[in-house]
Amino acid sequence: MRERGKIGGMDSRPAARLAPMHATGPRPLAWLYVAAPFSMGYIDFFTFLIPLYGLSLGLDASEIGILVGARSMLALFLSIHIGVLMDRFGTRAGTLVFVWMGMLLAPLFPLVPTFWVLFLLQLVNGAAVSFAWSGAQTLSAQLADGDPRYIGRFSFFARLGSTSAPIVAGALWDFGGAWAAYVLGSAWGAILTTALLRAPEAESFMPQLPSGISRRFRARDIWPRKADYVSSINLIVLPAVAVSMAIISMRNTTYSLQTSVYVVYLDQIGLVGTAIGTLFAASEIASGFGALFAGRAMRIGDPQRTMLSGTLVSILLICCHTLVGGHLRVVTAVSNRARLA
User: Fold this and answer.
1) Who contacts 219 (Cβ-Cβ below 8 Å, separation ≥6)?
2) The model's pTM
3) Distances (CA, A) of 146 to 21, 130, 152, 245
4) Could you give the angle at which helices 273-300 and 303-319 cross, rounded to 10 degrees?
5) Is domain 11-340 in CATH 1.20.1250.20, yes or no?
6) Is 106 within 8 Å of 46 (Cβ atoms)?
7) What's the average model confidence in pLDDT over 207-216?
8) Domain locations in the chain as residue ranges
9) Distance CA 320, CA 316 (A)
10) How many Cα atoms within 13 Å fall on the side-chain side of residue 323?
11) Which of residues 1 and 167 earns the better pLDDT score?
């Protein structure tokens, strides 16, 4: 029996139909569910910290917005290529590479005091943690063989990470500063590494070479291929793909506002890192409940109307933040006075 999940050399796998997740046994299942919160929390952890660190350096709102956006710039251009590499050499192996990159880059953030160097660091680290999360998500879907039961369970555990990561990061920021928060980011990646190493590797869709020998990773594989991009971009002509891209774009737009301008606003009205992290967690909890009722809402009404109405409500609620800011400022002042007393 061939060894599963071999990392050394990143050998490509022969084509085979993916086995359902329940065929891997209870132990690999448990470790994949452990990886879920730490993979989604991995990206939320760094996304939450960068505005706080930028504010501590005295950066303005526009610079913080650029730093938050830098997380997706490199990922935007390389996502197709990275997906092809994961299919060719193994999803788990590729995911581990990006988890390790995030672990190595995390302690460098407190050492960077200037905007442009921080921008370059955020450019690379943001792409790494984004690919780590998407790789873990893809691994779950591959092992589940499309079974919605197991994919739903993975999503549930992933929400635990997105809920806890901002609270933990905010508390460490308040009590230990940037060093404590970013070092925990490396520790977070170490736990994710352990879980991924215990989880099974999914079989690749790519065939072996005609000689029957698995293709090994070479330096030229790092360079993107034009054919991969052309074949992927051509999928936009499919209505389902085009609508999915539009929905994801809307969701990412509101998320970018939440992780940039929203943090600056909360800092200006006097909230500390722990309180800001708690508000982030509250939004993730609400997202979890929204996901539970999304299917029922689409069955009752038209899916497109459900999407548009949900987007409209989210935009209106974002605009309402400035209306409740005065109340938050009063609560913050009272709590600070009580602390001083």
Assistant:
1) none
2) 0.69
3) 9, 22, 10, 20
4) 150
5) yes
6) yes
7) 52
8) 11-340
9) 6
10) 5
11) 167
